[in-house]
Amino acid sequence: MREDIEKVIVSQGEIQEAVARLGKEIQTDYVGKVPIFICILKGAVVFMTDLIRAYDAPAEIEFMDVSSYGDAFESSGEVRILKDLDIPVNGRDLIIVEDIIDTGRTLEALIKLLKTRGASSIKICSFLDKPARRLINVHVDYTGVLVPDEFLVGYGLDYKNQYRNLPYVGVLKPIIYS
What is the pLDDT of residues 58-72, one digit of tens each? Predict the structure, then answer.
């Protein structure tokens, strides 16, 4: 897999530093509260695992699986819920945990859905933010790393469900997906 990577964008060390910083920031903002961290599958599971360990206070975790890409290279704009939450969120403080925010379409749909379910507050924590691709203006409350508009894999990000297990974030060589 490593030979398919053009260059590393975020190293293992940089990942660890960003996750530790985010855990502390969120912990400071949620003193006296018990937020629900909602991991957006599959991409955010690696980040979520590290983030929840960096958050040293009471919290709950939940999982959702949503799709706007399928196997496509670009987002279709249609967001489908593949796995919903197992608990009600009415009156709860939610933190949506994403691997990367690019167009903002998926996030916009999730926020609307969770607001209709009566969440007390909704904040967004994304390991990576790719603002150059933003089509929908969504506010990301906690950002690990800003990244360029390149095809990224590793640390949960995939291409055709591969490369998620790389311990860094790298640019996939165009010959792989062309």
Answer: 999 999 998 765 544
| Number of domains forming the structure of the chain | 1
17 domain residue, yes or no: yes
* Predicted local distance difference test score (pLDDT) of residue 172: 97
Global pTM reads 0.92
Q: Which domain holds residue 29?
A: 12-152
Tokens of residue 59, six digits: 């919290």
Annotated active-site positions, please?
Answer: 102
Per-residue pLDDT band for 139 (boundaries 50, 70, 90) equals: very high
The two tokens of residue 67 are 């799709």
Q: Tell me the CATH number at 53.
A: 3.40.50.2020
Q: Which helix (H) or strand (E) holds 47?
A: helix 45-54
